[in-house]
Amino acid sequence: MGDAVVRDALVALNELVFAYFPAVNLAQGILLVCGGLEVRDGLITARGRRWLAQSTGLLPRVSVLVPAYNEGLAVVEMVTATLAVHYGNLEVVVVNDGSTDGTMEKLAGEFALEAVRRPNALPIPTRPVRRVYASRQYPGLIVVDKENGGKADALNAGLCRATGDLICAVDADTVLDPDALVRLALPLAQDERVIAAGGVIRVVNGCRVRFGRVVERLTPHGLLGRVQEVEYSRAFLFGRLGWNRLGDNVIISGAFGVFRREAVVEAGGYRESTVGEDMELVLRLRRLAYEDRRPHRVVFVPDPIAWTEVPSTPRALGRQRSRWHRGLAEVFRMHWRVLGRPRYGLMGTVVMPYYLLVELLAPVVEALGIVFLLVGLALGAVALPFAFLLALAAYGFALILGLTALTLDDWFDEHHSRLRDRATRILSALLEQLGYRQLTVWWRLRGLAQYARGHTAWGEQTRLGTVANLPAPRGRQLPRRLRRPDPRLPWQDRDGAATAPGPDRPGALR
């Protein structure tokens, strides 16, 4: 009697899981179709209109915020490339968040910094700022040196000292295509209802980079990098494009996104109580706009491209995915009142339930499904053909969606027109479902466990320095006249080499 009850319960649970996966894949299929419609309807704006907006001065001033903690391997190349983007009204605000690897020294030596007075004019508290520096070589460059407080705190410190109408948050290991900012700022310049816009993030691992520019696009080395490339294409080009079509994007990548500065300031800046500060900020902006009956459009523009270095080892990737999922759980805790409420439109009735069931709880359901299936097979409660159908439904349809997303990516990215690149991406999509997907389930479950234990640390990040994978030539050093001792730079030594601006250096301005 007892065995029969157990078998019946296992059968019922397996049928429930069996129903869950097709429902999830159906929802993702709808997003994929919507993403395809976005591309078909000409979401990508003609370049001529972008350059017209740039040449006639229609685009507002943009302040690029670059939080940097121990990013010495790539920060100089990244800042150099950002200063050289095709955007006339540009300000770059680098925030050294208490780095211990010489990040500040490299910035000082490369950009001829001098201390200036730029007080915090906004009511957003941050960790103490040691000094603010400006570059004598690049008028649009500001460097904020502060005590360590985390990424959100660093972004707030940059926000408080930025002067642009728009702010663009960029990670220190991310480089922008030359016209990426023009493309991303244009929707906000054209439509006052748009409060934020996000672009595509692509994997820089394996590419050739020179002076912070991707000069040759190559497939990432190793299976781990290639699978992540497929993941990024799928996440951006059917997930966010699909929500674009439905009018309810709630995620702007923390590695590359543009916001209206006034809206971010009114919302109180970035929150330090979550590692998912990007999604949390967008949700808060839209939630406040719904409550005050103000415009709150958030758009995804698929052709502005930023390049970022992805983890190259399973350990580093596991820490990242656990952190991402923990951040998602934190965001739901902060904004659970939005869930299911018609007051917040589709964001409350469709988007938040989707992210709860399809994103947050997915690893729990998938792990339970594997356990129930194995136990059911062992006890004879589940037939082998049923187990095969379950696996086919769970992974087969996901594979179809992934391959369709790659086709959509190839549609407007001519780089993947080479047969070898396409074959490599298809093979990576196949291998993603066998082993890698199960690893991500474990990593995300670990993230939920960390959230339940109150774990708040960001975690160690290891960089390979892909953004700086070619050494700079000798001619790229500072001009000789700037390497001589300068009384305005009290923290230079007698040979003219910039040293770290420490608290004992006289003449520094706080």
Strand and helix map with partners:
Blueprint: H1 2-40, H2 47-55, E1 62-68, H3 75-83, E2 90-97, H4 103-111, E3 113-116, E4 129-135, E5 141-146, H5 151-161, E6 166-170, E7 174-176, H6 180-190, E8 194-203, E9 208-210, E10 213-216, H7 222-246, E11 256-260, H8 261-266, H9 277-292, E12 297-308, H10 314-334, H11 345-360, H12 362-379, H13 384-412, H14 419-452, H15 480-483
Parallel strand pairs: 1-2, 1-6, 2-5, 8-12
Antiparallel strand pairs: 3-4, 4-5, 6-11, 7-12, 8-11, 9-10
Helix pairs in contact: 1-7, 1-12, 1-13, 7-13, 7-14, 10-14, 12-14, 13-14
Summary keywords:
alpha/beta; Spore Coat Polysaccharide Biosynthesis Protein SpsA, Chain A; two-stranded antiparallel sheet; disordered C terminus
- CATH second-level architecture of the domain at 23-359 and 457-467: Alpha-Beta Complex
Distance between the termini: 78 Å
Strand order of the largest sheet: 3-4-5-2-1-6-11-8-12-7
Structural category? alpha/beta
Provide the low-confidence segments as ranges.
470-510
CATH superfamily of the domain at 23-359 and 457-467: Spore Coat Polysaccharide Biosynthesis Protein SpsA, Chain A
Name the average pLDDT.
Answer: 80
Number of strands: 12
The value of Rg in angstroms is: 24 Å
Shape: globular
Write up what this structure looks like.
The chain has helices spanning about 1-40, 45-55, 75-85, 105-110, 150-160, 180-190, 220-245, 260-265, 275-290, 315-335, 345-360, 360-380, 385-410, 420-450, 480-485; strands at about 60-70, 90-95, 115, 130-135, 140-145, 165-170, 175, 195-205, 210, 215, 255-260, 295-310. The protein is an alpha/beta fold and about 500 residues long. The protein has a domain at about 25-360 and about 455-465: Spore Coat Polysaccharide Biosynthesis Protein SpsA, Chain A, CATH 3.90.550. The strands form two sheets. Strands 3-4-5-2-1-6-11-8-12-7 form a ten-stranded mixed beta sheet, sandwiched between helices. Strands 9-10 form a two-stranded antiparallel sheet. Helix 3 links the parallel strand 1 (about 60-70) and strand 2 (about 90-95). The longest helix is centred in the first third of the chain and has 39 residues, at about 1-40. The protein is globular, with a radius of gyration of 24 Å. Mean pLDDT is about 80; it is low at about 470-510.
